[in-house]
Each structure stands twice: as structure tokens, then as C-alpha cells.
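fyi for ur records
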Amino acid sequence: MSEKSPQGTARNSTGTSAAPLKVPQVCSVLVADDEHLIATSIAAMAREMGHNVTGVAGDGEAAVHLARQSRPDVALLDIRMPKLSGIDVAAVLYRELSVPSVIISAYSDQEQLDKIRQNGVSSGIYGYLIKPVEADDLRVALGVALVRSATDHALSDRVEQLERNVANRRVVEQAKWVLVQKRQLTEPQAHEKLQKLARDQRRPLAEIAGEVIQRGDLPGA
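which gave:
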């Protein structure tokens, strides 16, 4: 399990530092609220903090359309909007664009909170602010959303890499046994032949191993 260090570097369960998280200090922000005055006020707050507002939407469908065009770093969404709710928009933005969202709403009823909780990480929601929003609250919410989403993405990338490594090792092991049976080699000899071929051809070991499994022997043999 990883935790966030004070310097912004993820630490794994062994205490060693992983690569620093890429969290922008200045980010691009999408704002969506069907009350125009509130939307422009929130956008103005974000600009005063130095952030770039990529667009202001008045309904959920417009928010999704703007996000697909502008690819913001984070979205600030009203929870109750025409056409699509903020919760639905957040899920779409996270699934399609990996954009985290902060809900800004006058409502904090349990039904909405339960819906967010049920969706878990796939909700894409990394913060919840109650209107009227103060600048300091917005600043903190944006920072937390960006750090938490970056942490989740880093963990997801790490898991995917580990899964690829395990899959590649399986392929190499299978290829070694193909050579052991086909060429009457020892396992170390088979592994050495695979490594040499990968070096000579400057190709990944797993790629060479996959060809061996497919051919039933070394490529070119």
C-alpha cells in the first residue's frame, strides 16, 4: 500500500520512495452549473488562483462536450443540472478522459452521497463542496482532487505494469520448456538462448519467447 509523503512522493509499503507524483500547481478547470451567476463566480475564483478555465457549461451534456474538446485537469460540477447530473458527468469524464471532478452543490442529502459511495473510484469524484463556496475551500479542494487522482493513476499504472511483468514471465517460462523438449537443453541453456536472441535482434525477451511458443522452436530454425 502506498502513502503520500510530505514532499509529494508516493511511498510504498517497504518505505522506499517511488517516482514523484506529477501534480500541476496551475491547472485547467472546467466549470458546470445551471445557475449562470454561480458558474461565473466559481470560474472567477479559479482564475484568481492562477488556474486556466477551459469552459463554463450550463448543463451536463454541454459539460461533457466541453471536456472532450478541452481536456481539463479537473472539473467543478453542480450536482443537479439539466440533461445529466454532476454525478453522471463526473463518471463519464473519469471513464473517458481520466479527469477528476469536485462536486459543488447546495445539497448534501444522503441519497446523493450513497450514489457516489456505491460508484467508488469509478465515480471520478474527489471532493464535495457545499454552496456558497469560499475561495480557500475551493483552493484546498482542487489541490486534494489533483493529488488523490494522481495517486490513484500511479497505483493503477503500477498494477498494470506488474501484471504485464507476470504475463511476460509466464511466456518466457513456456518458451524455455519448448526448447528444453525440442532441443534437449537444460533450462538455463534454454534461457540463455532466448536472451542471446533477444540481444542480437534488439527485441524484448517476451516477444522472442512468444515466437518460440508459436513456432515450437527458435525463430529461423
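The domain at 22-133 is CATH 3.40.50.2300 (Rossmann fold). thats all i got for now
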